[in-house]
Amino acid sequence: MGLLARDANDDARSAGLQRAYHRGASRTLRSRRPGRGSSSRPPATSVALAHIRAGRWARSLLEGALEERRTNMGFRTQRALEEQVVVITGASSGIGLSTARLAAARGAAVVMAARSPEIEQLAEQLRSEGGRAEAVVADVSSEEDVRHVADVAEARFGRIDTWINNAGTSVYGRSLEVPVDDMRELFDTDFWGTVYGSRVAVERMRDLGGTLINVGGVMSERALPLQGASSAAKHAVKGFTDALRVELEHDEVPVQITLVNPASTDTPLFAHAKNRLDDGVPAAPPPVYAPEVAARALLECATRPKREITVGAAGRARQLLSRWMPAVADELAARRMFEPQVRREPHEPRVLGAGSERGDHRGMVRRRGERPAIRVPTMPAVVAGVGAVLVAVGLMRVASQIAASRAV
Q1: Dihedral pair phi/psi, residue 325, rounded to 5°
Q2: SS3 for 38?
């Protein structure tokens, strides 16, 4: 299809969506006309509901149009998981290991990449249980190593269907006190590892199609104190992922891009994090989810790709608060996000070797949460919450003005 024809189709589709939106709003308002003796003007709630329903109607049409366009671009329906070849970086512990084990149990061919030589034993364990698994010792901060992972996957299983960039590290400390070298080392793994993995994955899946899943975090949108470097890296991962998605869409490359943001998860990440705190050791801020919660969400995206999801309802709530009321989110973080991230213990090494899915979190660990994470709170609830905050702010301003006038 030529560029002019494609632009004309896009313009026509956009105009159609606008007409659908207004038709949906009009129908909702007509169905809620007041009876005799009441005001002819529909109540504000009816107007809000009309726009919400119209938006849903238009969104359904848009999703259908996008699905049609993807089909025309050559996007294939993703294979069932048992037919897929899945590459997972950072697969020696935590979310990566949990995802590899679950994928192998469901029949997928799994390529496990990690820096630890013990990754070979973990792959052998999966094979002994009847799974299909291949291990690659690789450091994702090296582009050459990442290319080697792809070479092994194609040589062993013939292709790559899903690539999950999961490898990550962490450093705890105040942003002005953490050594810059620690920050650079973190970025080498968390950001550049994702960049290298994304470039190699798209290169190998460009012809046959596939899914690229980058693991971000709640910090992709909501920065946390004491984790400034990680927050910056996760913001960078989100920015890179979003830009890459749009570029591939423009170039009609049949690779689907998903960003998965796990909430606080009980993994060895916190025990292995570099500790630059004045007192205590890094801890996972509650509520904390089990790694298998994130693993289930990742594999769901491998078969039913989405644009972006957040794993864990608590993480989604934090993101929404940061998006809608950033000043309030800052205030809450300043007051309540320091203590939960520090466990008052002596600075001693906490080694949880390869093969550990769970960390050493001592509180409650939630084993469910992937479904609420994918759902977005309804607009009436968001509007009601924002409205309540605005009313409260207005009352505070009125009270301050009255107090000021009395003082004069």
Answers
A1: -135, 70
A2: coil
Residue 383 CA from chain centroid, whole number = 24
The residues pairing with 366 across neighbouring beta strands, listed in sequence order, are 289
What is the phi/psi pair of residue 285, to 5°? -70, 135
**Adjacency order of strands within the sheet including 210-215:** 132-137, 109-114, 85-89, 162-165, 210-215, 255-262, 308-311
403 to each of 38, 398, 408, how far by Cα in Å? 40, 9, 9
- The pLDDT tens digits along the chain (408 residues) read 444 444 445 555 555 555 555 555 555 545 555 555 445 555 555 555 555 565 556 556 665 555 555 555 555 578 999 999 999 999 999 999 999 999 999 999 999 999 999 999 999 999 999 999 999 999 999 999 999 999 999 999 999 999 999 999 999 999 999 999 999 999 999 999 999 999 999 999 999 999 999 999 999 999 999 999 999 999 999 999 999 999 999 999 999 999 999 999 999 999 999 999 999 999 988 899 999 999 999 999 999 999 999 998 888 888 888 889 989 989 999 999 999 989 988 766 666 667 788 877 777 777 766 443 444 444 444 444 555 445 444 544 544 555 455 555
Query: How far apart (Å, rounded) are the C-alpha atoms in residues 283 and 281?
Result: 6
SS3 308: strand
Query: Secondary structure of the chain: what % helix, strand, coil (to 5)?
Result: 55, 15, 30
CA 357 to chain centre: 19
Whole-angstrom Cα Rg for the chain = 24
CATH code: domain 81-385 is: 3.40.50.720
Q: How far apart are CA 256 and CA 56, in angstroms?
A: 23
pTM assigned to the model = 0.76
